[in-house]
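User: Sequence for alpha-L-rhamnosidase below. Tokens please.
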Amino acid sequence: MRKRVLVTVTMLLFSFGLAFGQIAISNLRCELLVNPIGIDMQRPSLSWEITSLIRNTNQIAYQILVSENENNLAVNKGDVWDSGKTASDSTAFVSYKGKKLKKDTRYYWKIKIWTNQGEGVWSATAYWHQGLMNYKDWAATQVGEMPFVDWGGRWIGFDRMFPWDGNQSENRLSARYFRKEFKPVGKVKSATAYIIGLGLYELYINGKKIGNHVLAPIPTDYTKNVKYNAFDVKENLKEGINAIGVVLGNGRYYTMRQLHQEYKIKTFGFPKLLFNLVLKYEDGTETVVFSDNTWKGTADGPIRSNNEYDGENYDATKEMLGWNKVGFDDSKWLKAEFVQEPGGNYEAQMSENMKVMDSIPPVSITKIAGDRYIIDFGQNMTGWMKFAAQGKKGEQVKLRYAESLTPNGELAVANLRDAKAQAVYTLKGSGKEFWEPSFTYYGFRYVEVSGYPGTPTKENFVAKMVYDDVRTVGTFKSSNPLLNQIYKNVWWGTAGNYKGMPVDCPQRNERQPWLGDRGIGTIGENFMFDNARIYKKLVNDIKLAQKADGSLPDVAPDFWRYYSDNITWPGVMLLITDMLHQQTGDVAVVRETYPVMHKWLRYMKDRFMTTDYILNKDSYGDWCAPPATIEAGRGISANQKFPSPLISTAYYYHFTNMMAGYAAMQNKTEDVSYYKNLGKKIKEAFNITYYKDAGYYGKGELTDNLLPLYFEMVAEPNVDKVFQYVVNTIKVKNQGHLSTGVIGTQWLMRTLSKYGRADIALQIATKKTYPSWGYMIENGATTIWELWNGNTAAPDMNSQNHVMMVGDLVVWYYQYLAGIQSSVQNPGFRKIIMSPEFVHGLDFVQASHQAITGLIKSEWKREKGKITWTVAIPSNSTAEIHIPSSSLKNIQENSKPISSINEITYLRTEKGRQVFEVPSGNYVFKF
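Assistant: Structure tokens for alpha-L-rhamnosidase:
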């Protein structure tokens, strides 16, 4: 009799748990989203996770059923797609191969799997909603009518300023309010709202806000692509007449600095709206409510100005009670005007919107002078403050935000540059009033409140932490409190700078998606956050920003026109592509980005590579390397560039190796040869040009030597000599400290561990003196500073919430301290390389990562000279376990000799470690 295994979905898994011997599908996903609404591709990819308490559980086949009718799935009928029993161990990025998908249609799907442990039963049902897939799917007339003009949708707005907006140079622009009443013509079966509200929008139906997101949609270069959101709004409708309301904020469409540095900053225009509400009826007919000039609009509402840099002004005396409900008198409102479309392709938004992810109460309120109070939330964060107040009509509460205080207790705002980072709320005087902004955010720990009626108390204030609605999928804890606090600081800084794209900082007049700030750090971020969709968008933003000649920007989307022909900033595209492939197993991202990367590398070679194969072009050098002492950097601006052909040449060599690998994946044999041959010539030229007989490269800077070591550019006879130079630089010259900037810090910790000195890496990570991550914390940091000397540098470039100085620290936490690393040959954690550094100085390390295959854990502790190492390997994965022991006899698993465990296979002895192949399951090793 064949063994049958239980297959359930998340709801059952978490409601009832798993009995011994059961196998479950713990998650079904379309394009890695659970039950997504608004997919615009004909071949979405499907994914699922397998959870099992049975060791060595591997999928051997699957069957997927897809139907428009959920009842069909109940009788196991996949009339849209039945994959049949398909022999495969893939559980991610399985491409849909059924009938052509129809717009605005919900598709239900379920799956059955077969494993080496037995056959499963059908999972519960999940769904995705196919959205509007083409430009012409956006209705401009009612379905069934002959359109007057054949186009895709009607954009509305007001392409002008109003008298109360002030002059354009002030960047003051009030929010636009639009409304429309409609009546369904039958019994509604489904209702889906599609909206592109630029720059930002809030959507209401019958007075209720749709969705729990904020600051939507995510920003793009609107001339290249614009993102739509879709919502199931059937439950928001009522019989008879209904009302739609939309508020438009400025976001990045009405640029934050409209008339400032026009040569650098892209401008797009005034806010605008494209909207479709598709109503499908029980009788099979449908109508569409769409944006046109029958809508009414006004800019004379309560949001008097909104600007991402400067904040928001809200006048509650201008509130329009019931403006988004049926029956509101809009006779004094204007007729909505047709406006030009933004120019970019319409695309479904596949990455998350932002959301209020946490609420943080104040830790203190301090009166400083007059009616001014400082509210301290104890944590540098991004978002805003919500408050309650009761006062007279016309009284104004003024807010100013900052990251820190001056020595005399005032807000320190010099590092904001000309960003005002403020808010003004005018009371309407009708009882207790609550307010929070809609179309701005701040980077802050402190808020100055003035004009508050009465005495402010903690109960009337709360900070709202805002970032992209991504899961935290990683945990890390060690016996060293400083390492743990650094991890916490990194988490807060990383989360807060997810703003529909990864930005550099959240507080000053910048907030740009600088590419160089990310790089290798994205791997560490992915261990912490389910951020693959954020970075797939960023890769696409870079792709869209490429010029016809092949050049790439330093910022993407290129809101700032910075095309510096720098290798290290645009080259992050390769590093992010590699992260996505290695961490998730996504092969498509390699295929899609390869032509862009290839074209760019050719462009850089043709323009800047000498006949001696040195890439003589770099813009930033090792950006923001620390001054020699904390005092040496006092009052000095960090905005200084030190271009380095050594760095650019080393990076280009590294990229040739990566591209050769990508080319091989796609069977591009000519490209493989091209990149291998080019790399060989660059390596030879690099060593001739930069290697010194004394055993170091370049001018002897730490970064100059880390790069050739990690990139394996050093001639074999010189490796030990160069690495010893690195060790001496750190231990003697730097007295145990780092001396790297943005570039070098991305390779520092892993190079030390790769060459056998994890102990030195740990010393660097646990330093509390300058320069170090610990020094930041000792000086009050609750995120990561932009500069190692952030407490003494000039304020013009001195953010206290940047991620660029994290480097490869968090990568090192996971891959080396915990020993969780995806195999290069089997990416997406199908095979996990687990070789922790059981470094002395730590008594325990506990880490976990919810990978695309499932939950991975690695926890070790040292007691009385023995190590206990607990490991969890997800189903459908295997691990290569490296245990430091001179003999197999000294290793036990679950209190038994490891040699007696049938599932575990001994592979080899390597560098003093016993190496085993271990299938999925939970294990406890002692040695």
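The two ends are 41 Å apart (CA to CA).
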